[in-house]
Design brief:
alpha/beta; 2 domains; TIM Barrel; about 15% strand; single chain
Amino acid sequence: MTELRWRPIVAAAALVAAVAAGGLNGAASVQADAQAGAAKPTGCVAKGKRYRDSGWRGRRWVALTFDGGPTSQYTSKVLAQLRKADVHVTFFIRGQFIRGHAALLRKEIAAGHELANHSYSHPHFPGSYDISRTTKLIRSATGYRPCLFRAPYGSIDGALLSRVRHQKMLTIGWDVDSWDSLYDNVSKETVYSRVVNGARPGSIILMHDGEGPHQGTLQALGPILRNFKRRHLQVVPVSKLLGLRSTFR
């Protein structure tokens, strides 16, 4: 696995050469070849504090996160809205839902989103096996090794943080809770208000695409993204918000 630093230089040089040799048609051909052979993400590299619930406040970036998927009912609909808005987020994956939904994980990766670990069976204070099992399932389905973990229910203690860090991951909390899983049938107005009023540069925002009724999430997501655009808040994956290095092949 290598960090993708040299590829833009090579691509730019090839583009210049193509223009000189074949004009715009040659340039278009090189661009198509570059896209076809684009590097595939293989993970990210954990560094810094073992627990984070926000990023640097000095840049107008926020991270949207979706917990508990993949699910047939919600994940594809979330992906469609993210694609329309041209933004990338982090999905915290529940391991027991991967079977039968691996294609959704591959769609998330192909669309430029980030995968992270949310335990296998969603217990309070999951053990090492529950955590590592989910990482292996994500990697088997996608070739991607997550460097981020979110504790079920947000429940953490020193022992859990140590278990997660031992598996080369950081534990990620949030500073904005959409309340979309606080109780059944949370309204779109509540989700929207909680997110847009709480979000500020550096925020990590908690939402869900897992079990339970999340119609309010689906209905509020588009308006939330439009609000962020008006406020010049750029939505990025958590690893980018925290300045973590990504790896590619």
